[in-house]
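G., the chain you wanted modeled:
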Amino acid sequence: MEQYKQEFIEFMVESDVLKFGDFTLKSGRKSPFFMNAGAYVTGSQLMRLGEYYAKAIHDRYGEEFDVLFGPAYKGIPLSVAACIAFSKLYGKEIRYSSNRKEIKDHGDTGILLGSKLKDGDRVVVIEDVTTSGKSIEETFPILQAQGDIKVVGLMVSLNRMEVGRNGTMSALDEIRETYGFETNAIVTMAEVVEYLYGRPCQGKIIIDDTLKAAIDEYYKEYGVN
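Predicted structure as tokens:
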């Protein structure tokens, strides 16, 4: 596993973004783990988060894109932080863009916040986590309406590796099949479990035998192959 992935897993735990226990998800599923990207709130956290996204994006998509698009609202700070980090780490200026929930009709008009999009732009969409693909359903038509835009791919922070709405493949795989562009995550839950199982993190064992068994049971019911 790449070093930045190992560091990112520890960062999620350290930032109290990735938690383990008993949680009821919005879907109604009972889950032994929960991710809340809203817990990244400090300057240092956002700086590090942007760098992890930039490294993963560079790893998967190289530098062959022009814009990082962060769907409102959580995607806005992600796209900004990752653009800053991309410039710092790789010396390439990437523009950021996001959508507004409501079209602005005065001043900086239109539905987009940040950079406008133009014909020929290559876009990477950046989100926190995808569980249903609903955000992409809303985002993709907005991007298409801007002109001859190519979506290079999607990058999220964590692939939960659970069946999506069709019940046979993950939400990320459903998006790839539906829209025809690559979908990736900084880390997958399989990588998280592999790295944390039996390993001290923040001074304690995060995933012991009992929690590992609970996660395995969860994935027997909701996981994808």
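The CA atoms of residues 57 and 139 lie 19 Å apart.

Shout if anything looks off.
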